[in-house]
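User: Here's a structure from my thesis project, written as structure tokens. My advisor, Dr. K., wants to see whether a designed sequence matches the one we expressed. Can you design one independently, without my sequence as a hint?
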């Protein structure tokens, strides 16, 4: 068993790191780098030795190779996740072994490094890992955030699960893919993952991928050098450089053209970008969070989105529930939105108005609820919101649909059937068995109808 060369007399006062690698030269390189950063290292060459160290000492970080004589790095990741949850783990993978990196991140690794290890990337990773907040701190900040207007407000099981996931994701550097309908709070969730994690003091850069002209994609993402093209009168940083050390949020990522997807994949894998007009690459340290209201897997099947990029972005998925899946949160949301719009003394909703809001289907989710309340407060009299002030009748009753004249009988019946099933699923927390019982049909029949009508859980 190899022991760090750091003077044992000072070890008790230093932050301790566990290094696990079967190659002596790699252990020595990591040990020396950590020592120069003022950190104390214990070095193990096998899974068994690592377990022995973990039983005796408390570590602030673990760096482990993927391939070990008596197991692999995933064994270390899972062990620490199960028994030493306060310790972030980073894995070291063979160069170009993307599958191993993704597997480690899904197993709970904080981040990964590719061999040969670049010392600048190693130092950046170590600094980020040591800034990861503890579980108790996450719970405290999550609770405080949820009580603030404009945050993830609600006490439904769906929103409690999202808060729990955000707390876990904040302790990792793994790429996160946030799915959900428009207006369900995908960017808000991304901001919370960033603000509760190790990168909270660094920039959060949101990018709407569907709003950038295709011919400007590369220069906007990676920047450009003076003279690279007509109009490039000075050097300019791109989104990756602006987000360096922090988080890059790619909203509506499914709208990226295929040519840009290739360049984005390389930047994520290599952690390097090349400005337009430059002959050299520069290292960037960016966490990627992506989102889209479209079904990204269907885009892959339709060959409009690269499968390899899909698997790099979708390491961990966070699904944002629609508002109709958590209608019990509507009163709390109404209260928070009204305070934000009107201040400390907002108008009151009559019971019929609140009941109508609690039974509405919200095709536009929380964003639509905000619009409804802003309109209602502008129309109401005597500081009281009446049912007519909400103007709900003009809103579509099925997601993404507005009733049209000349609708065929089949379309009309499918629309009604879809809404009835959605209502039943919402009431049962999307439990298909309970929803089938509520509707008086068999489970198999309900499953067939869900698939036929294209209902998304």
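Assistant: Designed independently from the structure alone:
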């Amino acid at each position: 068993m190899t022991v760090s060369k750091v003077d044992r007399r000072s070890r008790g006062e230093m932050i301790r790191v566990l290094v696990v690698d079967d190659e002596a030269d790699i252990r020595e390189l990591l040990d020396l780098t950590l020592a120069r950063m003022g950190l104390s290292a214990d070095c193990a060459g096998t899974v068994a030795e690592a377990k022995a160290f973990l039983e005796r000492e408390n570590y602030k970080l673990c760096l482990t190779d993927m391939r070990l004589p008596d197991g692999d790095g995933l064994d270390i990741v899972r062990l620490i996740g199960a028994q030493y949850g306060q310790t972030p783990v980073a894995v070291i993978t063979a160069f170009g072994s993307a599958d191993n990196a993704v597997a480690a991140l899904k197993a709970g690794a904080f981040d990964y490094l590719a061999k040969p290890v670049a010392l600048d990337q190693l130092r950046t990773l170590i600094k980020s890992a040591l800034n990861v907040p503890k579980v108790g701190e996450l719970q405290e900040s999550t609770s405080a955030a949820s009580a603030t207007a404009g945050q993830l407000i609600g006490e439904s099981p769906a929103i409690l699960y999202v808060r729990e996931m955000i707390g876990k994701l904040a302790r990792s550097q793994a790429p996160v893919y946030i799915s959900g309908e428009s207006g369900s709070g995908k960017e808000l969730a991304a901001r919370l993952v960033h603000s509760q994690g190790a990168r909270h003091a660094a920039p959060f850069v949101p990018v709407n991928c569907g709003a950038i002209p295709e011919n400007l994609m590369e220069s906007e993402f990676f920047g450009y050098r003076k003279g690279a093209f007509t109009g490039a009168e000075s050097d300019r940083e791109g989104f990756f450089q602006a987000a360096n050390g922090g988080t890059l949020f790619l909203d509506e990522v499914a709208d990226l053209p295929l040519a840009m997807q290739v360049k984005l994949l390389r930047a994520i894998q290599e952690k390097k970008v090349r400005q337009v007009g430059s002959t050299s690459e520069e290292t960037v340290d960016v966490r990627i969070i992506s989102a889209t209201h479209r079904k990204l897997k269907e885009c892959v099947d339709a060959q409009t989105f690269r499968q390899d990029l899909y698997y790099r972005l979708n390491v961990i998925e966070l699904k944002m529930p629609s508002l109709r899946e958590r209608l019990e949160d509507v009163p709390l949301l109404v209260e928070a939105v009204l305070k934000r719009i009107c201040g400390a003394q907002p108008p009151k909703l009559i019971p019929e108005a609140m009941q109508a809001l609690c039974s509405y289907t919200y095709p536009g989710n929380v964003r639509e609820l905000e619009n409804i309340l802003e309109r209602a407060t502008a129309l109401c009299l005597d500081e009281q919101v009446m049912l007519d002030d909400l103007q709900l009748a003009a809103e579509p009753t099925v997601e993404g649909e507005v009733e049209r004249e000349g609708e065929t009988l089949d379309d009309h019946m499918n629309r009604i059937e879809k809404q009835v099933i959605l209502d039943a699923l919402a009431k049962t927390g999307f439990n298909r068995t309970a929803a089938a019982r509520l509707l008086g049909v068999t489970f198999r029949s309900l499953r067939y109808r869900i698939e036929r009508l294209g209902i998304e859980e």
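When you compare it with your expressed construct, this may help: Residues 409-453 form a domain with the Arc Repressor Mutant, subunit A fold (CATH 1.10.10.60).
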